[in-house]
Design a protein that fits this description.
By secondary structure, chain A is of the alpha+beta class. Chain A has helices spanning about 50-65, 100-120, 125-130, 130-140, 150-175, 175-184, and strands spanning about 25, 30-35, 40-45, 75-80, 80-85, 90-95, 140-145, 145. Chain B contains 49 helices and no strands. The chains are: A alpha+beta (about 180), B mainly alpha (about 1000). Chains A and B meet through β3, α1, β4, α2 and α3 of A and α1, α2, α4, α6 and α8 of B. Chain A: It is found in: Cytoplasmic vesicle, Clathrin-coated vesicle membrane; Golgi apparatus. Chain A: One of its GO terms (biological process) is cytosolic transport.
Chain lengths: ~180, ~1000
């Protein structure tokens, strides 16, 4: 198998996480997006209402804007009267212009650290194949465009509880014989 | 059988370990091929194929549930990549009904990602959410609450609201937290539906779990934003929470990069900034804890700086305190300086610039020491930083630096492609130019260059710029027409001919916005031939080109034809013969047949004018009379002798309209008007027999047609200044308003006939000198302006720029007298000019500077307020919050609750949850105490003394006068250069 995304990376700091574009609507955060360095979408979460068409436009515009930015510049860009904070392989969060950009930047890092803990030093592959899990985790951190939990431990505990429940459920219904009988 | 095979593969993949268990090879292949796709088109092809196969397979009967789960995830994937998977939505909805948590979660996830809150399918989910909210399994409840946040809309809120409220008391903190967030979301969607539940948020603030408390801050922030005054009683609680958070009383799990619960701190600071804004008493409670945080904050980590930045925002928002402002200024300079040392910390620079923008609102002096840092940011390659710096400059613009700042802004505006930002920066330029324009000529130069940029901004101005810029265009025209002042005709005409020159040059540009074309046409018509440099036919040719070359609208055409008419009129009046250019003739023909009555009328007017005698023409359109007022003689007294004569000759006297009531005369021009005013009821009496119209009316009518033809067009631009759309109106309005349209012209004639005005085209040679006298731009700013663009990056250049930005005190004193000299023309139009206000303002500001104290923030209240001027707010504060009982103004119940509040946080660490109920109920009292609260009693008791609110207001005005950057205070930056 070709290794598309060769390195497992330290997420924080010199990131190898493709872009999460996070921006929130109407509330605090308008939406969150994760785009890769190649402009591929890895995760999108819309907290303000956007039509499918608008979404594509937003992603196109923002990836054009953010991927072309050089290194060592601000992690913030102004975009259509909003501000987009991006970090580490382009987790992008869109906020209103008067919000605290540095806080949002740290929310991204917070998210990344939790992903890191969950996947055990997360790499892009984890997010590509388990994007739904990234969604679950994001749902525990942000809700309706607001930061709902700032304790990594609490988030981790909740996710673990959900996973273990899922596992037991799987064992009950998901035994091989069960599956085969269903398949037949 | 094939399915069996895939299951086998699936199992193999599962055993392969890694994170991605439970997904089929197929799906993994799909993700992989998407990853390998080289282009968007290839990606789209793959996904479309995938969608087709999903569409087929998802509709098959008896799809196994786990398989269905994967299909749903694949649909999510397709949607994420921007494709429509709406055919699968219903399956996702079905999946939420599943008993298994795994499937239910997947269903909820998909549904929240797929559906907007107005989707038809929502109604099918509400029932499931209701059921799940009652589940025994808290994880299911959590999943349902998360979905509710996204999916429940205004209509369906009542269906789940009672359950969500019940969940606020759920034993699991995760559930309580999500219930708070859901309630918050409901509040955002429809404040009315949850308004009776707001007290719940206050209660949750005292939750034992810091997570729930932190989540509660989100709704409280919204509520306080909406209505600050109802929450003033919470200030003390918030302060004590913040204090304890800062003292690390929260569990370690909330630490982030060695900071104690920074996200909660930031939220609290935001809330306190709202509560303390403009409220001296509330701010008094806040000072202490802010000082603590400033001291404790680590500025080595991002998050520490985020908290510091939030502190600065808070300090600049609440009632000013000198010590805190110093601390804030110090942190700001750390932000700005840190960037100088480590080039990569652009983020901090950015925040530093933003913080500076907040602080200069309170004390403009803060900016001084950071001049060079600001200039650095302005020249930084990073656009984000640059824009932020422009925002700062915009905030600190004064009459002394406006030229440099606006020039810079225009340069930047031309260089960028971002239409949104272009619009914004253009309107800012215009605003600044009008507010601070140092001289008229500069304003014109500015406007010309601004209009240059219109070329690249066509689209922007179509959508956004019009409102601002119509006004600008008219101001510009007025400025050119009125010139500098009455005593300086030479300078005026020089200005005009330079305007004509530059506009003729600009006309060569391929695309010009219509607004700008209007200005050009007007100027060319009014002054195109004034200095004799260009022949009439040349200008007319140009104007014809305008209507053809540019795809222009009717308004521009109207301006152009009017301009042609004026030029013809000037020619005829000067006794020269006007030969019609073929293109002009074809233009007239075209416009006479136009659908627009306005254009038609103008074309006919022009044709009529060409047939008139030169004297008549001169009185119809006198030269350079655009500034003259038109006086309408409504009594038509100048016709008296004519009427008298006719009556003597036996004509019938005029019968006033009222006496003729009911008579409609088609030939009467006013019939239209009459028709409007006469009652709309049907008339039953027979029509009168037609009478021969009274003789005096006959000449009147003939005049009237003439008049309407000839109402001079330039004047309409004056009347329609703010209402371009109704360009035609003035003519009709004016005529129908008084029943004597016809006489309009005659009144005009009389006024315009004055010979003095035709002399205005004076020689250019003498004018040049005078202009030099008028363009008094001081050496310093001229020089810096000139050199600004040559060699960027040189330190000395930067210093010069800094000098011109932050305080060109040298030039200031010279400038002031000239600006006052520029006495406005004593005609009504000038009264609106920004220049007038400016001419007066230096004097006022001088007076103010003399009378008001220097902008020392500590002294704010000194001359006016008599209540608490000498007491250090910090001391007061320490008394309030410290361990000793509060000062006597607070009555007992407040102090007890205050003492209790600190315990609240101790619960998180020390007390076992079981014992907490009694204390939190005690706190509940505190928070529900808004109605009969001790604080509420307390406030009026303080108010009984010398009214602090009044003095507060006075303070604010005093501050405003002395300190605000727009106040034109010349002394503020004086010592900057030295």
């Amino acid at each position: 198998m070709v290794r598309l995304y060769p390195n497992r990376c330290q997420l924080v700091g010199s990131a190898f996480i493709s872009g999460f574009l996070i921006s929130l609507v109407r509330s605090f955060i308008h939406f969150v997006i994760l785009i890769s360095r190649q402009g591929k979408v890895r995760l999108t979460k819309w907290y303000s209402p956007y039509q499918q068409k608008e979404r594509s436009t937003v992603i196109r515009e923002l990836s054009g804007l953010i991927l072309t930015r050089g290194p060592k510049l601000c992690n913030f860009v102004e975009w259509k009267g909003f501000k987009v904070v991006y970090a580490s392989l382009y987790f992008c969060i869109c906020i209103d212009p008067d919000d605290n950009e540095l806080e949002i930047l740290e929310i991204i890092h917070h998210f990344v650290e939790i992903l890191d803990r969950y996947f055990g030093s997360v790499c892009e592959l984890d997010l590509i194949f388990n994007f739904h899990k990234a969604y679950y985790i994001l749902d525990e951190i942000l809700i309706a465009g607001e930061l709902q939990e700032s304790s990594k431990k609490t988030v981790a505990r909740l996710i673990a509880a959900q996973d273990s429940l899922v596992e037991t459920a799987k064992e009950e219904t998901g035994s091989i014989s069960n599956m085969i009988s269903q398949a037949m | 059988m094939e399915q069996l095979k895939t299951i086998g593969r699936e199992l193999a993949m599962g055993s392969q370990g890694g994170g991605w268990t439970g997904q089929s090879k197929e799906f993994l292949d799909l993700v992989k091929s998407i990853g390998e796709a080289r282009s968007k088109a290839e990606e789209d092809r793959i996904i479309l194929r995938e969608i087709e196969s999903l569409r087929r397979r998802i509709a098959e009967p008896d799809v196994p549930r786990r398989r269905m789960k994967e299909y749903i995830i694949r649909l999510v994937y397709a949607e994420m990549l921007g494709h429509d998977a709406s055919f699968g939505y219903i399956h996702a909805v079905k999946m939420t009904h599943d008993d298994s948590l795994s499937l239910k979660r997947t269903g909820y996830l998909a549904v929240t990602l797929f559906l907007s809150d107005d989707h038809d399918l929502i109604i099918l989910i509400v029932n499931t959410i209701q059921k799940d909210l009652r589940s025994d399994n808290y994880l299911i409840v959590c999943a349902a609450l998360t979905a509710a946040c996204k999916l429940i809309n205004e209509e369906t809120i009542p269906a789940v609201l009672p359950q969500v409220v019940d969940l606020l008391a759920h034993p699991k903190e995760a559930v309580r937290k999500k219930a708070v967030m859901a309630l918050h979301r409901f509040y955002q969607r429809s404040p009315a539906s949850v308004s009776h539940l707001i007290s719940n948020f206050r209660k949750r603030l005292c939750d034992n779990d810091p997570g729930v408390m932190g989540a509660t801050l989100c709704p409280l922030f919204d509520l306080i934003t909406a209505d600050v005054n109802s929450y003033k009683d919470l200030v003390i609680s918030f302060v004590s929470i913040l204090k304890q958070v800062a003292e690390r009383r929260l569990p370690k799990a909330y630490d982030y990069h060695q900071m104690a619960a920074p996200f909660i701190q930031i939220k609290l600071l935001k809330i306190l900034a709202l509560l303390g804004s403009g409220d001296k008493q509330a701010s008094g409670h806040i000072y202490n804890v802010l000082g603590d945080i400033f001291r404790k904050c680590e500025s080595s980590s991002n998050i520490g700086n985020a908290v510091l930045y939030e502190c600065i925002c808070c300090v600049s928002s609440i009632y000013p305190n000198a010590k805190l402002l110093d601390a804030a200024a110090e942190s700001t300079s750390k932000f700005l300086k840190a960037c100088l040392l480590f080039s990569e910390s652009h983020n901090l620079k950015y925040l530093g610039i933003d913080a500076l923008g907040r602080l200069i609102k309170i004390n403009p002096d803060v900016a001084e020491e950071h001049q060079l840092a600001v200039i650095d940011c302005l020249e930084d390659p990073d656009d984000t930083l640059k824009r932020k710096t422009f925002e700062l400059l915009y905030k600190m613009t004064k009459s002394t630096n406006v030229e440099v700042i606006v020039d810079r802004m225009i340069d930047y505006m031309i260089s960028i492609n971002d239409n949104h930002y272009k619009t914004e920066i253009a309107s800012r330029c215009v605003e600044l130019a009008e507010q601070f324009a140092p001289s008229n000529q500069w304003f014109i130069q500015f406007s010309v260059s601004n209009n240059f940029t219109f070329q690249t901004m066509n689209k922007v101005f179509e959508h956004a710029g019009d409102l601002v810029n119509v006004r600008v265009a008219h101001n510009l025209m007025r400025l050119i027409a009125e010139g500098f002042g009455e005593d300086d005709e030479g300078a005026d005409s020089q200005l005009r001919s330079s305007a004509v020159n530059s506009y003729l040059r600009i006309l060569g540009e391929p695309k010009l916005p219509s607004l700008f074309l209007q200005v050009i046409c007007w100027v060319l018509g009014e002054y195109g031939t004034a200095d004799g440099k260009y022949s009439a036919s040349y200008i007319i040719g140009k104007l014809c080109d305008v209507t053809e070359a540019h795809l222009c609208n009717d308004t521009v055409k109207a301006y152009a034809i009017s301009a042609i008419m004026k030029i013809c009129a000037f020619e005829i009046a000067a006794g020269r013969k006007v030969e019609m250019l073929p293109e002009c003739q074809s233009l007239i023909d075209e416009l006479s047949a136009s659908h627009s009555t306005d254009l038609q009328q103008r074309a006919y007017e022009l044709q009529a004018l060409l047939c008139l005698h030169s004297q008549a023409v001169e009185s119809v359109i006198p030269l350079d009379a655009s500034c003259e007022d038109i006086e309408v003689d409504r009594n038509l007294s100048f016709l008296d002798s004519f009427v008298q004569q006719s009556i003597e000759k036996g004509a019938r006297p005029y019968i006033p309209e009222i006496e003729r009531s009911g008579m409609f005369s088609v030939s009467n021009y006013t019939s239209q008007h009459q028709h409007e005013t006469s009652s709309h009821t049907l008339r039953f009496e027979a029509y009168e027999l037609p009478k021969p119209s009274p003789t005096p009316a006959a000449p009147q009518i003939s005049v009237s047609t003439r008049t309407t033809d000839l109402v001079p067009v330039p004047e309409t631009t004056y009347y329609t200044e703010n209402n371009q759309a109704s360009k035609l109106q003035p003519v009709l309005d004016a005529s129908s308003a008084d029943h004597g349209i016809k006489l309009h012209l005659v009144g005009v004639q009389k006024k315009w006939g004055r010979p003095t005005y035709s002399a205005s085209s004076s020689t250019t040679s003498s004018s040049e000198k005078k202009t030099n006298g008028v363009t008094h731009l001081d050496g310093v700013s001229l020089q810096s302006q000139g050199t600004l663009y040559d060699s960027k990056g040189q330190q000395s250049e930067k210093q010069k720029l800094a000098a011109s930005l932050f305080g060109a005190s040298a030039g200031k004193t010279e400038k002031k007298p000239t600006s006052t000299q520029r006495a406005p023309k004593a005609n009504t139009a000038t009264a609106e000019r920004p220049g007038v206000a400016r001419a007066v303002s230096p004097e006022i500001s001088k007076q103010k500077a003399a009378s008001s104290p220097p902008p020392d923030l500590l002294d704010l209240g000194e001359p006016i307020s008599t209540t608490t001027p000498t007491i250090d707010p910090f001391e007061q504060l320490e008394g309030l919050i410290g361990p000793t009982p509060g000062p006597s103004t607070l009555d007992n119940s407040v102090t007890t609750s205050e003492q209790k509040a600190p315990d609240l946080m101790a619960l998180y660490t020390d007390t076992p949850p079981s014992s907490s109920s009694s204390i939190s109920s005690g706190l509940g009292d505190l928070h529900s105490a808004d109605k009969n609260s001790p604080m509420a009693k307390n406030v009026p008791s303080i108010k009984k003394g010398p009214n602090p609110q009044d003095s507060l207001q006075k303070d604010a005005t005093a501050r405003h006068v002395g300190v605000t950057p727009t106040g034109n205070n010349p002394n503020l930056f004086r010592d900057l250069l030295g």
